[in-house]
Amino acid sequence: MEAVVHPVVGKVSGRIASASGWTALAGHWIRWRQLGPAALARLADAIRASEVGHTGELLVVVETALPSRHLDSHERALEVFGRWRVWDTPGRSGVLLYVALGDHRIEIIADRGVPVADAHWQTLCDTLQSALRAGRYLPGLLAAISGIEDTLRATLPDESPGTPNRLTDSPLLI
């Protein structure tokens, strides 16, 4: 998340770190150390369990660093949202949890069918950001998935039998 007080300084230092490759290197290191096969399996299980009882669908995407052409994590998350067809769910109820590890950026993008205020999603992002800063990657991601699940369960109708799972339950590492 960018600092609100000094947005220009944050963008300039972000460009320097991104151009030098430090953010990508840090992101690869974090992914390698914190998100191994066992952690990814736990996240997939949590996502699978979170999609029961409502019509919402969750896609978790973890990227080592923002691509050099994207300095804005929200813009990148919107691109990922479209590319992975999160919008293509019954009831327009897809939600994307996007994490750029090396850049320390988190975005939650919800489709139009999820009537939730941006401030609520921001609170979930801030909570996950705090966990990641403390080095609690897996517990933080699991808590974020649980928070998204609680939100979807409270705002969306019950899932009808035979509703297809349109999005993968496994976190995508890009």
From TrEMBL:
Coiled coil: none annotated. Residues 37-150 form the TPM domain. Residues 155-174 are annotated as: Disordered. It comes from the Bacteria. InterPro entries: TPM_dom. PANTHER family: BLL7265 PROTEIN, UPF0603 PROTEIN YGCG. This is TPM domain-containing protein. It comes from Orrella dioscoreae.
